[in-house]
TrEMBL record:
Organism field: Pristionchus mayeri
Superkingdom of origin organism: Eukaryota
Matching InterPro entries: 7TM_GPCR_serpentine_rcpt_Srw, GPCR_Dmsr-1, GPCR_Rhodpsn_7TM
Primary site of residence: membrane
Boundaries of every G-protein coupled receptors family 1 profile domain copy: 1-124
Transmembrane segments: 12-37, 68-93, 108-127
GO MF term set: G protein-coupled peptide receptor activity
Protein name listed in UniProt: G-protein coupled receptors family 1 profile domain-containing protein
Keyword annotations of the record: Membrane, Transmembrane, Transmembrane helix
Tagged with keyword Transmembrane helix: yes
Localization, UniProt: Membrane
GO cellular component entries: plasma membrane
Pfam families the record matches: 7TM_GPCR_Srw (PF10324)
Length: 150
């Protein structure tokens, strides 16, 4: 069995998998989602919009988009962060932890990840029409602003 001889390569693989494929994407998702939510709120803030744009774009749409982004971030955190923690623990713990605990927990985490990916797909499909409408309104507001400058 691979676990019995305390393979250094196996430990490095678990550590790099936990950090590079689970933890780093979670952190980057939080950073980029926060930036996106902030940008959505600043673009659609009432102080930046004209009277014509306020009627076509509501702050409820930006709040809804921010909630959807937050939901996707939470789903990813619930599924990917435990995987990162287990991989890092496996790389530092004894062989017995790997064989007894990690194998059982990893299958549970893999099931959670598959369920989360399915929910992300459902969320994107349900929201894609509304998201396209908000994006179209944003592009229209940019065209109006550019035509006003000329």
């Amino acid at each position: 069995m691979v676990y019995e001889n305390d393979c250094l390569l196996l430990r490095i693989t678990y550590l790099s998998t936990g950090l590079l494929f689970n933890f780093l994407p979670c952190i980057l998702l939080v950073i980029f989602s926060g930036a996106l939510a902030h940008r959505i709120r600043t673009v659609f803030s009432p102080s930046r919009l004209t009277v014509c744009e306020i009627t076509s774009i509501s702050s409820a749409e930006s709040a809804r988009s921010s909630r959807i982004i937050l939901l996707i971030v939470l789903i990813t955190f619930i599924t990917d962060l435990p995987g990162a923690i287990i991989c890092v623990l496996v790389s530092f713990m004894a062989d017995r932890f790997r064989s007894d605990v990690a194998n059982k927990v990893e299958s549970l985490i893999a099931t959670l990840v598959m369920i989360a990916r399915a929910w992300n797909l459902v969320i994107h499909v349900c929201v894609s029409r509304r998201f396209r409408e908000v994006e179209k309104d944003y592009k229209m507001s940019l065209v109006v602003k550019l035509s006003d400058k000329q």
